[in-house]
Amino acid sequence: MGSPLGWLLIQWFQGSHPEQQLSLHTELYLYLFIGTLLTFACFGWYVGFNEERRKAQSLTDPLTQCFNFRYFHERFAQELQRAKRSGQDLSVMILDIDEFKKVNDTYGHPAGDKVLIDTCQTITENLRSYEILCRVGGEEFAVLTLQSDLPAALDIAHRMRTKIKSKVITLEDQQLSITVSIGVSSYQDGDSIDTMIARADKALYQAKNNGRDCVMPDHVLSQVSIS
């Protein structure tokens, strides 16, 4: 609206009545009005588009295009509050690529990047639409499994581990397969983000000690500590 109103104001200062201007130059003011609306509409779309893009970039891992640690922590907090209010099941798994440093040392960092990208894709293909995958470290991923108790989360983890192991990753002149170790924990009364992650991390550590390429639930830890 700034363009037609501004022009009317200029004409008024020059002694011309606005109503006379509108009646004599209707087409001109209609052109100014439509042009101004289109300009502001395009500008608003451009600002909104870039704002959404910046927001998406701040929550996304640039290499794998899955969510990053910031999004993981924010979403985890939301889902944990929902679980506490409604009693909804919630589980988290921490997944680590076995001997990833050896991949980088043997095949180079570009090959390591491809392993990360392909692993992320394989995990995504084996998750339901409301389950969340995030990259939380170099070769470490986290998955929030909503509405899943520990047995259900373990089923997902075992399926994921098998799919990743059977995936053949093609490099320039050779092929390789990788394995992953996964620790899983489920929500218990009084849990916080830190306690759930700590149990999943300990379960992952136990999976590594058990020879890698396996899934370990957090309840096994308590059994081990008791024994």
Radius of gyration from the alpha-carbon trace, in angstroms:
28 Å
Q: In whole angstroms, how far apart are the ends?
A: 77 Å
Briefly note the structural class of the backbone: alpha+beta
Low-confidence stretches: 222-227
Indicate the mean pLDDT: 85
* Shape designation: elongated
Order of helices and strands: HHHHEHHEEHEEEHEH
- Kindly report the spatial arrangement of strands forming the biggest sheet: 2-3-1-6-7
Q: Top keywords for this entry?
A:
alpha+beta; two-stranded antiparallel sheet
Describe the structure.
The protein has about 230 residues and is α+β, with helices and mostly antiparallel strands. Helices cover about 60% and strands about 15% of the residues. The protein has nine helices and seven strands; from the N terminus they run H-H-H-H-E-H-H-E-E-H-E-E-E-H-E-H. The protein has helices at about 1-15, 20-25, 25-60, 70-85, 100-105, 110-125, 150-165, 195-210, 220-225, and strands at about 90-95, 130-135, 140-145, 170, 175, 180-185, 215. The chain has a five-stranded mixed β-sheet with strand order 2-3-1-6-7, with helices on both faces. Strands 4-5 form a two-stranded antiparallel sheet. Strand 6, helix 8 (about 195-210) and strand 7 form a beta-alpha-beta unit. The longest helix is centred in the first third of the chain and has 33 residues, at about 25-60. Mean pLDDT is about 85; it is low at about 220-225.
